Amino acid sequence: MKTHKDDLKNVTQNRAVIDSLYKAFAVGDIPTVLGIMDPNIIWNEAEGNVYADGNPYKGPEAVLNGVFARIGEEHEYFNLKDIELHEMFNDKVLATLRYDAKYKNGGNYDAQVAHFWTLKGGKVIGFQQYVDTKKLHDALSK
Q1: CATH code where residue 74 lies
Q2: d(CA 117, CA 21)
Q3: Looking at the 3D structure of the chain, how many domains does it have?
Q4: Distance CA 74, CA 125 (A)
């Protein structure tokens, strides 16, 4: 039987997993980021985001090719800043942050973002992005 103590342990472990994912992303360690994902991860970009055209992305390779590679190809820089992790029960972690980025066309943006993560056994099984897609679209349209 699962106890409250078990729940608290999972909350702390899940927060640590997501923290390590963001730290790896920050230094460009994409293999580590992908390794934290479950082979059957379901990844959804925010509706209205240009990268949502592949929703839902299924598996780390789909995320790599459909999201990460495209961000790398289309951006001069793409940084995550002001990351705050909010611990939740039921194997969920909410991250609030900002995207500080610039497209290669010269359009830049500083957008408010939320990432809703679902984990199981120390691996990410689900991701949902929430972002001000108008800001991203306006920067891409410059």
Answers
A1: 3.10.450.50
A2: 11
A3: 1
A4: 27
